[in-house]
Amino acid sequence: MLVLWLPSLAVLAQESRMMEDGEVMEYNGLRVGYRITNVSTREVGREIFDRYTITAFVTNFSPCEVGIRLTGNERPGFINDQVLRLATFDCLNATGARLTSRSVDITLRNDPIYYTYRYQIRLPDGKMENRTENIIVGYMLERNRTREVDFIVIVPRGEKPKIRVTVYPLPIN
Predict the structure, then answer these.
(1) Which of 102, 113, 122, 124 counts the most CB atoms within 10 A of its CB?
(2) pLDDT at position 43
(3) β-pair partners for 155
(4) Lowest-pLDDT range, 66-75, 76-85, 107-116, 157-166?
(5) Domain assignment of residue 162, yes or no
């Protein structure tokens, strides 16, 4: 059975907390965490900052797929990154210098479910031609699949990134 997730309910049921490098949080069948993959120093203006490359991840370890199924009756603009968001990683002490991130979202946007629609059309010369069209009918994160996003933050020298992770609920299909 497929359930349509209503974004207004997500505000009530989201989980948010501070996390450390390598720590993992489990919430509604999702395993969420991050790891620091590179550390260096950068000079910005006349100050020296620490630059961290971070890999944030969400893994579906539930017994089912999680996602959203489209019915075709959604309001225009209903499907956006807010609706498809799985988790947000906010670096509270990031400076944002040199166009680096302060936060990153992991969404279902890259996991579409397609339906292949086959139809015939009549050509001007009267012959029939078969055509196919792939239509997106939803977005899903399959069981045991991981979505990863790399982002770069610059923090004051000597500080580690202070990451707050927020996990948003999605229906289990």
Answers:
(1) 113
(2) 83
(3) 50
(4) 76-85
(5) yes
Say if residues 172 and 69 touch (Cβ distance below 8 Å). no
3-state secondary structure of 68: strand
User: What domain range includes position 77?
Assistant: 7-167
Strands lying side by side in the sheet with 103-107: 15-19, 163-167, 85-91, 103-107
- Asked if residues 113 and 140 have their Cβ atoms less than 8 Å apart, the reply is yes
Q: Alpha carbon of 136 to those of 35, 89, 119, 139: distances in Å?
A: 32, 27, 17, 8
> Closest Cα partner for 51 from 165, 158, 136?
158
Tokens 């790891």 identify what position?
35
For the CA atoms of 138, 141, 147, 151, what is the dihedral angle to 10 degrees?
A: 40
Place of tokens 């990031």: 94
Tally of domains in the chain: 1
Strand partners, 64: none
Q: What is the pLDDT of residue 132?
A: 96
Please, are residues 91 and 102 in contact by the beta-carbon 8 Å criterion? yes
**Position 2 in a domain:** no
The verdict on residue 173 lying in a domain is: no
Give the residue carrying structure tokens 């948003």: 168
Q: Does residue 172 lie in a domain region?
A: no
Tally Cβ neighbours within 10 Å of residue 5. Answer: 17
Q: Is the pTM of this model over 0.70?
A: yes
